[in-house]
Write a structure and sequence with these properties.
The complex is a heterodimer of chains A (240) and B (260). Chain A is mainly α and 240 residues long. Chain A is 82% helix and 0% strand. Chain A contains seven helices and no strands. Chain A is elongated and about 65 Å long. With 260 residues, chain B is α/β, with parallel strands linked by helices. Helix content of chain B is 35%, strand content 26%. Chain B is built from ten helices and ten strands. In chain B, helix 3 runs parallel beside helix 6 and helix 6 runs parallel beside helix 7. The chains are: A mainly alpha (240), B alpha/beta (260). Chains A and B meet through helix 3 of A and helix 8 and helix 10 of B.
Chain lengths: 240, 260
Amino acid sequence: MALTNDHTVKAFDEDLNRLRGLISEMGGRAEQALLQAMTALKQGDLDLAAQVVRDDKKIDALEAEVEQLTVQTIALRAPMADDLREMIAALKIVSVVERIGDYAKNIAKRVALMDQTRSIEAIPVLMSMSNIVVELVHDALDSFAARDAELAVRVTVRDKNVDDFYNSIFRTLVTFMMENPKYISESAHLLFVAKNLERMGDHATNIAEMVYYVVTGERMEERERGETPEESAAAEKEQG
Amino acid sequence: MTQEDLTITDPKMKAHGVNVFYGEKQAIKDVSIDVGTDLVTAFIGPSGCGKSTFLRSLNRMNDTVASARVTGQIELDGEDIYAPSMDVVQLRARVGMVFQKPNPFPKSIYDNVGYGPRIHGLAPSKADLDVIVERALVRAGLWDEVKDRLGESGTALSGGQQQRLCIARAIAVDPEVILMDEPCSALDPIATAKIEELIHELRGKYAIVIVTHNMQQAARVSQRTAFFHLGTLVEYGKTTDIFTNPKQERTKDYITGRYG
């Protein structure tokens, strides 16, 4: 038997390549949306923030296109084994990437609500946190493109750093609010930004888990979560 | 070969180290497989992989090919079917067969079904035979379509009906195993769906082994799938596993259409 990665039906490979291309483009746009949203937040750039909100429509459109192509491919090609797993993963991944885009849009919308004359010390920490999230999203999508299960596992492990950042920023902002009651509104917005970033990190691990499933056919072992149940409960309590 | 997750606790047939030769050429190489009593087992693989040859060794159909030679062990309920004491006619009644092309006898519908029970002495009286014929046609899902014209020739039926008639004929002698060699390849999609529904209905009453070129069909009708390639059994497992997460590269390449 000639072992090859190509399908006997070449049109099937063309569909798969198009699907991968669309997901890659969508991921790139989501990454960019996050970078621009954070830049807009740091610099108080309302135009850039507005652009992030506008561009989110393109991400939504790409999601719809991937969904359509996936359903079509399942119907027409009856994919099996790793091809089938890829179809299912594609559907799930694009819905996650769409959520990442929404969080970026949500951050961008807060830029106009911030009073830029006030500087808050948490912002530089948020920038560091968002850099890690961008890397995670980037690596998660790279692991999908490269069929790299090991990279996918590393993404889930690194998500712990994002969770640590979140807990740290939470405490910083709460302290800041107690000391500066006039800044409570801004601080609350920044808390939401931190929460959004934390959720994006979780979504990157969701992508990584799907990639692991595509490549190996198995579910990823219960991942090294960023927090123990006790810490998680404590964090919930703090926020509650 | 992967044997994990194969929970066949009560095998109807057991094959161990089976080789089949046509003259000098070896068509089947050291195949071992258990066929579950309450399961539909599908054999898939590219043309010439040996799946039909192996199927035919399960009821000694290869005996009819002069150059064919079978070695190894095949058991039906623990009984060696290649033992000298085995009555081959009796064996083929216990392990019935349905072929690719429907092949009804050029006789009435009634006689097509009644012939086997009559020569095997299963029907002492005409009334007994009537009951057997009706029951077989009901089980084959054909009764309602032919009950008013049992005297008509079997060959006058449509292709799909003829195939169900052949299944009724196999059922009539009360077999334990039914072997099907590409039973739908000559049928249209509607007739194919009826045969597949019938296979579903018959599961549990008979152990069923089906050879098919249509992988979707194997996925639809079977609980166990065996993939053959170049005379060897490459992988045997739960159908759901084979089609979502095959363990062997060759299986994956075949079922995803990368073969060739």
